[in-house]
Amino acid sequence: MIASTTSYLWSLQDVLGQGATASVYKARNKRSGELVAVKVFNAVSYNRPQEVQMSEFEMLRKLNHGNIVKLFTVEELPSKQKVLIMEYCSGGSLLSLLEEPQHAFGLPETEFLTVLQCIVQGMNHLRENGVVHRDIKPGNIMRQVGDDGKSVYKLTDFGAARELEDGEKFMSIYGTEEYLHPDMYERAVLRKPHHKSYGVSVDLWSIGVTLYHTATGNLPFTPFEGPRRNKPIMYKITADKPIGAIAGVQRVKGGPIEWSYSLPHHCQLSQGLRALLVPVLAGILEAAQERCWGFDQFFTATTDVLQRQTVHLFSLQQAAAHFIYVHHYSTVSAFFEEVASQTGIELKLQHLLYLGHVLPLEGSMKVVNLPRTSPSQPFIVLSCTPEANTSLPFKERKSVLSVVIVGIIHQYLRIVQLLNLHRELLLQGYYTYM
């Protein structure tokens, strides 16, 4: 049950991941004891031509970025078969994180933003080097956990990657069914011959499915029986998706597809972040390659999201918390407008409190000069007119039977925690007002 190369040793029971062509094990350097990941290819892979076997090594050798798993070296087994010695990521994959019960409804907002930032930075490095990945999915995004507990996500598994500039096309098929662009799905899964070629937009589609999965805990496109049990319907959902829709679910066998143009209430993202994320998902989850965003547009839109400053706000009469995303160089007037957009409270009716005091703000002031806020110390906004109490959106999923009960319990625990926090903010706000 032990395997080794000249410098590394591992147990065949320490499996980190398995794919169609290889298995990845946790290994140690024989001298230093340093942990690494070793990728061992199976017999089918070793029967391929030598240049194909070494393509992943050659691809990784030209890439060097903090959001891409590092390749240290290539060594040989006693059988002379080559293995890849790579960076070990202690947090497992993004998929394993999403499979934890507490993430059955998606990742928390701060962690989701970390995932988004790491994917954008890693993909930007790939495009700068003219590389298309062709198999982006949560299982191919590894998580490194630092000493401070913060996550860094890294793209891995470049066995299907190839060099491809923006205007170039390719014909070969790679990828994983649930994350596959509809044109590729039609040929690879349904086995329908066609003469379509594919460009770098196939990575954008996979990124869109991955981000939706990360935000909600679910795949965006699901037939009644599941993606792998009803493949014709799976293809129909993705290929026939209306413009602007970001999800399609068939809830009854043989029934219609329910299209969604927004993220579900059960996900943990704030209203402010959802409003910024949905247009991005709609732009890259576009089956028609001529209508799909390009990487330039994707990078511009996501960078705009990631560069915004978060201002925490609690609407007292509505008993609702908000995350206001605004650029640090914007004026407070722009902040007031975003508050009006999310709360429905007109600019002239907004009255702000902070840490027990009235907060006077000039419209020309810069957002960067606003006091620092947090979920427990937000700005509190009062309206000069009565407001409806919107509170938390306690809307249940329609198909909770598909979610393990532990995941639902974690969701209720989060709701209780938010209710306790909101109760404290309500008391704080009313005492300040009085």
UniProtKB/TrEMBL annotation:
The keyword Nucleotide-binding applies. Residues 10-315 form the Protein kinase domain. InterPro entries: IKK (IPR051180), Kinase-like_dom_sf (IPR011009), Prot_kinase_dom (IPR000719), Protein_kinase_ATP_BS (IPR017441), TBK1_ULD (IPR041087). It is found in: Cytoplasm. ATP binds at K39. GO terms for molecular function: ATP binding; protein serine/threonine kinase activity. It comes from the Eukaryota. GO terms for cellular component: cytoplasm. Its main location: cytoplasm. The keyword Kinase applies. It comes from Gouania willdenowi. GO terms for biological process: positive regulation of gene expression; positive regulation of innate immune response; positive regulation of signal transduction; response to stress. It holds the Pfam family Pkinase. Transmembrane segments: none annotated. This is Inhibitor of nuclear factor kappa-B kinase subunit epsilon-like. Keywords: ATP-binding, Cytoplasm, Kinase, Nucleotide-binding, Serine/threonine-protein kinase, Transferase.
